[in-house]
Amino acid sequence: MYNVLTIGGATQDLFIQCPSLDYTAISHTHSITTYLMLEADAKIEVDKLISFSGGGSTNTAVSFRRLGCSVATYCAIGNDQAGTIVLNDLINNGINTKLIHTSSHESTGISFIIDTDQGQRSILAYRGANSHLSLDYLSAEAIAGHQQLYITSLSNESAALLPTIASIAHQYRIPLALNPGKSQLSQGLPGIRQALPHVNTLILNSLEAKTLMMALAGSDNSYKEKLHESTGKPLGTLNDESIDPYLLHVGIACEKVCFNLQLFFRTVLSMGPTIVVVTNGKNGVYVATQKTIYFHPSIKTTVINTVGAGDAFGSCFVGSLLMGDTIKDAMRNGIINSASVLSYKGAKDGLLTMQELQTRRKALPEHLLVSFPL
Question: Model-level pTM greater than 0.85?
Answer without folding.
Answer: yes
